[in-house]
Amino acid sequence: MKGTGNKWRMLLAIGFLIIIYGCVAAQETRQPQPGADKKAIAGESESGTEPTGAGIYQQKIKPLTTRQCAQCHYAVFSDIRDRGGRHQLSCTECHETFHTWKPGREWSSVVPRCATCHELPHGPAFPECLKCHTDPHAPIAGLVKAEALADDCIRCHAAQENELRRHKSAHTEVACSECHHDRHGYKPKCNECHDEPHTPYTDNAGCQTCHPAHAPRNITYPATTPNQVCAGCHEEIADKLAHSHRKHATKPCVFCHVDRHGYVPHCTKCHSEPHSKKMLEPFKYNCKACHGEPHNLILPGHE
Ligand code: HEC
Ligand code: HEC
Ligand code: HEC
Ligand code: HEC
Ligand code: HEC
Ligand code: HEC
Ligand code: HEC
Ligand code: HEC
Ligand code: HEC
Ligand code: HEC
Ligand code: HEC
Ligand code: HEC
Questions:
Q1: Checking CA distances to 38, which of 25, 159, 247, 295 falls within 20 to 30 Å?
Q2: How far is the CA of 98 from the centre of ligand 1 (A)?
Q3: Is residue 50 situated within a structural domain?
């Protein structure tokens, strides 16, 4: 009795295994073979040869691939390939439906809306995407020219607008798009407008070590600036200092006129208490009364 019970159980187990194997095998045949997707063209059988007769209508039909769309829409395909940027998505990722437009029907109801994927990246002030991104397939390369954006620069770049307004200079009167012309994002060279630069620095990086583009009168300079840069405009002072025998002559201009152009230190910044009150009071603490000017010091009692 025990023996037959085991046999039945064994048969049941084998039956179960066969059923499971069958399911797996069926699923495998349903799944497309690797590479088949690329090869298959709508209407063609998996093997590549078109069946005949009623067999034509027994084929499995797959959705069109991007390559297949491109066979008819080559211009769109090459546009995306060459200039699409991050819009190099498959056609049907955007065109979930297509070929449904008829005269009388709204175009906007058959083409994808930017908002399905993007919402409002520049805020509610800019709802009409295609006004600026004129080519949906190449949204950055197809941007309108900078001049067409001129009225809107400051709505997206408030920081630069603030900087120009806070630090009044001749650049405050120049339109954004006069410097940033043609292509949005273009950065001009200083020497497009300023030939004969007054220093040995000839590129933007050089000019901007002293003049920030949007606050050119806020002149700062690095501690490595050599005296001959200053001498270009302050020849007389540079000359005096170069011919002085006193210790100030061992220091570069920017050691005393540190960081910001026009900064003038007081003597006591470095010489806190050189003499007694009694000595200085009659001269109203005016160091220059005895020492002359800092670029050509006098040391009373010395040659
Ligand atoms: C990022 C989304 C996106 C992708 C990817 C995309 N499209 Fe479009 N496409 C659009 C939008 C949006 C419009 C509607 C533009 C308009 O309203 O003028 C459009 C319009 C079209 C048009 C009609 C206008 C025209 O330019 O001829 C065709 C045809 C078209 N797409 C085909 C394609 C094909 C083919 C692909 C793939 C090679 C593709 N699209 C990929 C978003 C996309
Ligand atoms: C056999 C050729 C062919 C194929 C393949 C094809 N199209 Fe078209 N498509 C056309 C024609 C023809 C038009 C209408 C004429 C025109 O403006 O280009 C059109 C129009 C469109 C339009 C604009 C009108 C509408 O109804 O949406 C879009 C978008 C579009 N196709 C997308 C696609 C996409 C996406 C694919 C691939 C998934 C694709 N097409 C595959 C031929 C084709
Ligand atoms: C199906 C979704 C989808 C639709 C519809 C869509 N986009 Fe995009 N878009 C994307 C994706 C995905 C990216 C890449 C984002 C990333 O990498 O962060 C992108 C990127 C962009 C970029 C930056 C491109 C770059 O190269 O840096 C712009 C601009 C843009 N989209 C504008 C638009 C506009 C305008 C429309 C409507 C005409 C639109 N998108 C419709 C999915 C979409
Ligand atoms: C007034 C013109 C204008 C309008 C309208 C506009 N954009 Fe833009 N968009 C721009 C400019 C300019 C850039 C910067 C491009 C660059 O990086 O050079 C940009 C960049 C983007 C980017 C790239 C994201 C980033 O921050 O770098 C996306 C995505 C985008 N736009 C989507 C949209 C969508 C979606 C709409 C409609 C809801 C839209 N834009 C409307 C001008 C516009
Ligand atoms: C709709 C919003 C929008 C408008 C309008 C717009 N920009 Fe932009 N701009 C952007 C975005 C987004 C970027 C890329 C992201 C970033 O660097 O801030 C950008 C980048 C730039 C850059 C390059 C920044 C860098 O660091 O490389 C410059 C320069 C610039 N814009 C100038 C302008 C000028 C000038 C105008 C007007 C003629 C303008 N933009 C109009 C959104 C806008
Ligand atoms: C006199 C010319 C000039 C004017 C006017 C001007 N810019 Fe610029 N801008 C520049 C230069 C030069 C750079 C820096 C280029 C570099 O880094 O080499 C720059 C850089 C930028 C950048 C990149 C980020 C940064 O701050 O460095 C943005 C964004 C920008 N400008 C926007 C604007 C906007 C918006 C306006 C108007 C409100 C404006 N600019 C006016 C010359 C100008
Ligand atoms: C599109 C033309 C243009 C570009 C590019 C430009 N500037 Fe100017 N800049 C002007 C004009 C116009 C003035 C006023 C007349 C003059 O001094 O030539 C000016 C004035 C100045 C002044 C004197 C400011 C004042 O208020 O006295 C400085 C400093 C200056 N620019 C530096 C620069 C630097 C540095 C760059 C590059 C980062 C630059 N400029 C790029 C047009 C430009
Ligand atoms: C070492 C710092 C420094 C560098 C680098 C520098 N400048 Fe200047 N720039 C100055 C100083 C200081 C002034 C005088 C400011 C004043 O008049 O108050 C000045 C004045 C100017 C002026 C006003 C007109 C004039 O000549 O007096 C312009 C324009 C100018 N610079 C453009 C440039 C350009 C373009 C470059 C790059 C080729 C550049 N600067 C590099 C420090 C510098
Ligand atoms: C492009 C010419 C130019 C260059 C280069 C230049 N300066 Fe000047 N500097 C001037 C002019 C013009 C003034 C007077 C107008 C003013 O106060 O802005 C001045 C004024 C000064 C003042 C006096 C400010 C006051 O309140 O009396 C100091 C200090 C000064 N510069 C130091 C320097 C130093 C240090 C350098 C080199 C790092 C330098 N300058 C480079 C043109 C220049
Ligand atoms: C050891 C410090 C020191 C050095 C180095 C120095 N200066 Fe001065 N400079 C001063 C002091 C302090 C004053 C203020 C004098 C006063 O109170 O009248 C001054 C004033 C100035 C002034 C404005 C007043 C005037 O005399 O026209 C200019 C311009 C100037 N220095 C430029 C330069 C230049 C250019 C160099 C380099 C060639 C230089 N300085 C080197 C300390 C120095
Ligand atoms: C930024 C700092 C600084 C400023 C500001 C400064 N000095 Fe000096 N001074 C020095 C240094 C450094 C020495 C040299 C000290 C040494 O080597 O012992 C010096 C030396 C001197 C000496 C001795 C000169 C010698 O050859 O023995 C006198 C006098 C003097 N300073 C006066 C002044 C007067 C007056 C002023 C204001 C008009 C002034 N200093 C402003 C840094 C400064
Ligand atoms: C009444 C004239 C007089 C006045 C005012 C004066 N000094 Fe002097 N200073 C002298 C004499 C004299 C010496 C000594 C020269 C020597 O060592 O023989 C001297 C020396 C110095 C020295 C060099 C000290 C050393 O040990 O090498 C410094 C630095 C100095 N003075 C700074 C100043 C400063 C800063 C002021 C203004 C706060 C000032 N002096 C005001 C007359 C004066």
A1: 25
A2: 9
A3: no
Average pLDDT on 254-275 reads: 94
Check: CB of residue 85 under 8 Å from CB of residue 144.
no
Rounded average pLDDT over 103-113: 93
Question: Which ligand gives the minimal distance to the CA of 161?
Answer: 6
Q: Is 298 in the pocket of ligand 11 (CB under 6 A)?
A: no
Token pair of 276 as six digits:
């007694």
Per-residue confidence (pLDDT) for residue 302, from 0 to 100: 84
Cα(199) to ligand 8 centroid in Å equals 7
Q: Are 300 and 243 in a shared domain?
A: yes
Ligand 10 centroid – CA 31 distance (Å):
84
156 and 112 co-located in one domain = no
Q: Which ligand is nearest to the CA of 282?
A: 12
Distance CA 4, CA 137 (A): 72
With 70 as the cut, is the pLDDT of residue 200 above it? no
Are 189 and 232 contained in the same domain? no
What is the rounded average pLDDT of the residues 237-259?
96
Q: Please give the residue range of the domain that contains residue 241.
A: 225-303
Among 156, 161, 208, residue to substitute to test ligand 5 (most atoms within 8 Å of Cβ): 156
Dihedral sign for Cα 252, 223, 210, 268, please: negative
Give the amino acid at 126: F
The pLDDT-based confidence of 202 (bands split at 50, 70, 90) is: confident
Query: 167 in a domain, yes or no?
Result: yes
Residue 179 and residue 198 share a domain: yes
Residues 72 and 105 in one domain: yes
Identify whether 37 is part of a domain.
Answer: no
Nearest to 161 by CA among 146, 176, 144: 176
